[in-house]
Amino acid sequence: MRKMINLFGIVLVLASSVAAAESEFDFEELMEAVDNNTHNLQDSITNKDRDSAIALAKELQNAFKLVEGFFDKRGNAADAVADSKIYQDNAAAIVKFVEANDYDSASNKAIEISKSCDQACHDTYKPL
Predict the structure, then answer these.
(1) Choosing a second label site near 14 at 20 to 30 A (CA), which of 40, 78, 108, 124?
(2) Interatomic CA distance for residues 90 and 116, integer angstroms
(3) Concatenated DSSP letters for 9-68?
(4) Integer Cα distance of 88 and 72 in angstroms
(5) Pick from 72, 64, 74: which is nearest to 113 by CA?
């Protein structure tokens, strides 16, 4: 019986941790950060600020991972899940382009993210 209680306690703690991690961000705040970081990323690329561009692209990649999880959990939003995966890939590509000093390609990807975001989720899912 004691083992059962300990096991239940462990499961409860783990479940609480997962729920807390998922609720640690406010979706609207995340979207504002994505919008700001997208604009700041373009500025960093234009100014050839390598460190800033890489950091912002990685932040966007992480943010779009959260967006993917949000829409996956929400359900009935397969297009938003797929789009967020594309944005993660685009952000990863920006990192590679900047590391290779290919700022033109990085800029094109950053513009692609910005335009795609506005046309995809914003038009379809805003306001949530």
Answers:
(1) 78
(2) 11
(3) HHHHHHHHHHHHHHTSS-HHHHHHHHHHHHHHHHHHHHTT-HHHHHHHHHHHHHHHHHHH
(4) 15
(5) 64
Lowest mean pLDDT: which of 45-54, 69-78, 84-93? 69-78
pTM above 0.90, yes or no: no
What whole-number distance in Å separates Cα of residue 128 and Cα of residue 121? 10
- Distance between CA 95 and CA 112 in Å, rounded? 14
Q: Is the dihedral of CA 13, 31, 56, 86 positive or negative?
A: positive
